[in-house]
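Q: Could you write out the predicted structure for this multi-component system? I'm mainly interested in how the pieces pack against one another.
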Amino acid sequence: MTRTNPANNLFRFQIFRPRRLSRYYLDYVISFGIIVLITLLGLLIRKHINPTNLVMPYLLGVVSVAVLYGRGPAMFASVLGVIAFDIFLVPPYLTFAVEDTEYLITFLALFLVGIVISNLTAEVKEQMLEAQWGEARVLSLYNLSQDLAAAYCVEDVTKAITGNIGNALDHDIYLFLNDDGDTSSPELKVITAPGAAPRQVDTAVMFTYLQELASGSGTPHYPQAGVINLPLLTNSGCMGVISLSAKEPDDMLGPEQLQLFEAYANLSALALERLSLNKQAGQTQLLKEKEKFQTALLNCVSHDLRTPLVTITGTLSSLNDEIHLPDIETQRNLVRDALSEAERLNWLVSNLLNMSRLESGALKLQLETVDAQDLIGTTLGQMKDRIDCPVTLNISEELPLISADFVLVEQALINILDNAVKYSPEGSPIEISVRREDEWVYIDVADCGLGIPEDDMPFIFDKFYRVEGHTKLTGTGLGLAIAKGIIDAHGAKLSAMPRPEGGTIFRMGFPHENPSQQDAV
Amino acid sequence: MIPNTSVLVVDDERAVRRFLRTSLQAHGYTVYEAHTGEEALVEVVNRRPDLVILDLGLPGMSGLDVTRHLREWSSVPILILSVQDQEMAKIAALDAGADDYLTKPFSVGELMARMRVAIRHAVAPAKEPIFKSGDLSVDLANRSVTVKGQEISLTPTEYELLRILVMNAGKVLTHHQIIHTLWGATYQAETHLLRVNISNLRKKIEPDSSRPSYLVTEPGVGYRLRVVDDEA
């Protein structure tokens, strides 16, 4: 089945535009009244004025009726005017007979002028109405498309549709949507415009959805009065059904309004399709992210974990070589390096373990009172083989203790220091400062390294995120994410900011222990 | 070993460079270091090393790119360091002209053996006409192959295959390199023809063709004719 613009072929049959009969009668009654008024006026002044001049007020009346009520009442008024003029204003009065046959020409002229004027006026009026209608239609479509363009979720879209269309057509609008934009699903979800009477999915709606054909009033399918169901057709299938039901049983849509409804339906279908495509794109993105995550993890395991093994295996093989056993000095160097690499391996494995603990929420804190100075000293001791640059310590006196998991915070600090060393030129200094500020103890690690571009700042604590251009350096993008996870688990803060002189400052903030408790200790 | 042989170690990991430096110096090599591909190219020009040990997984300019660049103007032997999951890059680097490879982690003995082979090939490309490895002996001048002193007859393709391997004894040869030399560029995809000939050749020269001791398979990469020598 080829899909063309759905609106073109849904309503090929003619739907007559019914009008409310009460209104129809009223036009004629008022026209009648106008002629009566003119006749009464004529009766008052007929003695003073030549009857032929009294034709003018009638012409005025016909024109007024034509302007107000259109062609039908105007013609009615002109016929009525001729008769009234003849009976009441042309002697002999109260009879069709006329004494002067000249009046026949007056009658004819009045009649013809009335007809022509009423036609011309009515035509102008119709054109004007048409133009107004067209403008209103364009405006309402424009409003809908504006609202739809701004809508980014199903709720916004459905609100825009039901609100705009309901207002423009003065009908209740219902949307029957397939769940989650899955065009193959047979389940439909009802969305009702606010204030409209509730409706359920019925056979007519289901027919429209499955057959992708219009149903309801004026169609060959389920011609139920006051309801029209249109399928929301898109290139990716039927998104659901839009349904309109009359607020009062005798309200019907005219052909222009029907066309407008179809245009609305098309716009709505496009908007819903856009949402569903967006969603699909989002899911694809999610899948890609996951894939990236796995690749990064694999890369980490394959590269980072294997690198220390190069030194360890190499050293062991070298010591195992009976023929070419290196001299004792070399042996010592090899073993020392292998040991530090084994430590690094241990650190990497802990990092991976902590990562998965953080991911699964299984990280348990062993809180104890920790002296920040002790923490930094121990961390630097752990890292002495990896830090080959001068480290300046700037620790203020009389620091309060903090409550933390020593091992985990040490790990976080190692990750931050490791990051600082890695992204700094060899031998450039690192400054660690600890100070108290109000309720917080701040530990700053400042480096003179490459610095972090402003655009990357919000993402540096994301897993596997690596600053573009820094990828020349090996790394997995896990270290800072783990540090952040650990610090967050403490209810503490970790942030990064550019160092004014170049480089980056990483700031850890711990709420310090209650001073009264400290006094007790 | 030629006295004062110099080696350029290219690896982004400081620990690996340090380990290689210590080990190589202990074996009497002069060691230079580079931690990026770009630096490696400069160092090869400046230092003129006798061998380059090149990590395949360099960040930025990869080991493969470095190999291609070097091969445009230099014939310095290149020994690739790779990890298990870099098969494709490893083969590409070998095809691009790298001499051999080692998978991390590796033993120092293996590294030394590979380095010796690579340097020997570079220094003395013209082979002495008789190749000996254990019981296998190949006389390239007389086109005769003997196993345990017994002359064996080979088909022309088998002999040609053996000759290529002998010329590159101790070095890995990729499938692509062997096929290209044997059958020319048009037979790119005929790996199965190569496998059949390898199998036949093994039946004739190996004591136990299911556990080859001379013509060994380098999984996923190609073949190597092992030199069972006494100097080790």
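A: Regarding packing and overall arrangement: The interface with chain B takes residues 298, 302-303, 306-315, 317-318, 320-321, 323-324, 326-327, 330, 333-334, 337-338, 340-341, 344, 471-474 of chain A (CB under 8 Å).
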